[in-house]
Specification:
Largest sheet: none
Order of helices and strands: HHHHHH
Number of strands: 0
Strand content: under 5%
Structural class: mainly alpha
Number of helices: 6
Distance between the termini: 22 Å
Number of domains: 1
Length: 140
């Protein structure tokens, strides 16, 4: 399957919620071309974990019963850094233009950079859920 079709399948699965389709396609291409599917799996797992932490942090700020909020924030920060490192490793196989683009779009410590990264991680979370569904279908 080509990556454009795969991205479209993931987009349909997400009910058209993907926001960074072209960049997700680049990550998928780098993964498949360079036999880095395990790295892509790890990245999509990290993204799903980060998104879960975001949900806990949003609820936790309103819930006084959650006592380990600082630990959750630290875990969130560490996993954001981890996801950036994983993305950098995947795109290290791409040309300098792609690397420069990702550096500018996702890795700058700005509000816009963080928002873009968050959207890409959301797309990667959908990717993880899509792959999980595919695995369940093949084992049943």
């Amino acid at each position: 399957m080509n990556t454009a079709n795969l991205v479209e399948e993931i987009n349909v699965f997400s009910e058209q919620k993907l926001k960074r389709k072209n960049d997700l396609k680049i990550l998928l291409e780098m993964s498949f071309k360079n036999e880095k599917s395990v790295l892509l799996e790890n990245l999509s797992f990290t993204a799903k974990y980060i998104r879960g932490l975001e949900r806990v942090l949003k609820k936790g700020s309103m819930n006084p019963e959650i006592s380990n909020i600082e630990q959750i924030k630290q875990d969130y920060t560490n996993n954001i850094k981890k996801s950036i490192d994983q993305i950098k490793e995947l795109i290290s196989f791409a040309d300098t233009e792609v690397n420069s683009y990702f550096e500018e779009k996702y890795f700058k410590l700005t509000q816009e950079g963080f928002q873009s990264l968050s959207e890409l991680l959301e797309d990667l979370e959908w990717t993880k859920m899509y792959f999980n569904r595919q695995k369940r279908r093949t084992t049943n």
